[in-house]
Amino acid sequence: MNANEYGYFVSFSIPEKELVFLIEEAERHQIPVYLNGLVHDDMQATVKAMLYLVNKYNINGVLIDPVRFSYYQISAVPALVKKCGHQFDVIYGDINLKQGLSMIEREGDCKNERK
Predict the structure, then answer these.
(1) What are phi and psi of 6, to 5 degrees?
(2) What is the pTM of this model?
(3) All domains of the chain in start order, with CATH
């Protein structure tokens, strides 16, 4: 983990159009998007699902990183994370990403840390 970082945590269990919207929004804010694992524990199924979204919606894709899910104790998706040093903030739920970032800036443990 970097000392200061953002992350957006999603899953293929999120309906397709909503998932694409979340990924596009994270891309606009230059925030990496993470999956916890593979679709049906199958790399080929995961690649196929991701390529489908990349080709259909022209998105950049996501990173698979169960270590980050564990480190930030992500228990539900979508989840927005901002880490600052040894602290981090997590906002769960289907919230506008800009609103989530604003909430962290106003109220979170990382409120005084800029992107």
Answers:
(1) -115, 155
(2) 0.93
(3) 4-107 (3.40.30.10)
